[in-house]
Specification:
Layout lengths: L5 E4 L5 E3 L7 E3 L3 H4 L6 E3 L7 E8 L10 E9 L14 E8 L4 E2 L6 E2 L4 H15 L7 H19 L8 E7 L2 E10 L2 E8 L2 E8 L8 E3 L10
Antiparallel strand pairs: 1-5, 2-3, 4-14, 5-6, 6-7, 7-13, 8-9, 10-11, 11-12, 12-13
Length: about 230
């Protein structure tokens, strides 16, 4: 279950990068998304609420070569809180698109990376849900301990999609019913499956997973604004 690498922040809004001897130039937050060699997926037209950019993850690359985009997320509804909230009433659903990658050599040529799979999408969605969830009763130190513990559990669950912790759920992808694996917890829900050309994961809270549908996003402009 090759699921990670370096994450590149791509939140909505305009970021800036310092330039020596010149005025800082704005960085296009869509740039890492547009660099991907696979289609991005989000919620279909049934979702009429706010849309926002999440994060893009770049995979391993050989020295001197740019890292390939391996996955990324598109958000819907309220953005995750950045600090504890006594009463968290946010409603959101985040779609994680994962490139189909075959087994391949690591960047330093010392090992082999597993092919991506639905488990990869489940892991990224599960860890995304945990990162978006901040138990109000925990301070920062205790939250890190909680996050480490729950992340390890999410990894084990993602590696066993056919296990009893998951159930089956059929949802539309580009208008066509597709099977997904689904689970709920006190923090929200996670699902994982496939779509044409990619693997799909999703997580959310306050939004029913049973009512969502997914579609390829032809134009990311609708996600690039606040």
């Amino acid at each position: 279950m090759d699921a990670t690498s370096s994450a590149v922040g791509a939140g909505a809004g305009t970021a800036t990068t310092p330039v020596v001897g010149a005025q800082a130039k704005p960085v296009d937050p869509l740039a890492p998304y547009l660099a991907a060699d696979f289609p991005w997926y989000g919620l279909d037209e049934g979702w009429t609420g706010r849309r926002w950019l999440g994060q893009v993850g770049a995979g391993h690359s050989r020295i001197g070569e740019p890292a390939a985009v391996d996955y990324g997320s598109l958000g819907h509804g309220d953005e995750p809180a950045k600090q504890a909230e006594v009463r968290d009433v946010r409603r959101f659903a985040v779609v994680v698109t994962v490139a189909r990658r075959p087994g391949r050599r690591s960047a330093d040529n010392t090992g082999t990376l597993e092919a991506t799979s639905a488990s990869s999408a489940a892991w990224l969605a599960g860890s995304g849900l945990l990162a978006a969830t901040w138990p109000g009763q925990l301070d920062r130190t205790l939250r890190q301990d909680w996050l480490d513990q729950q992340t390890a559990l999410a990894w084990d669950l993602a590696d066993d999609l056919e296990g009893p912790a998951w159930s089956s759920l059929t949802l539309p992808v580009n208008g066509v019913p597709q099977p997904f694996r689904y689970r709920e917890s006190e923090y929200g829900w996670v699902l994982a499956g496939e779509a044409p050309g990619v693997l799909l994961g999703a997580y959310g809270r306050g939004v029913s997973a049973y009512g969502v549908g997914f579609t390829a996003v032809p134009d990311l402009a609708g996600y690039n604004g606040r």
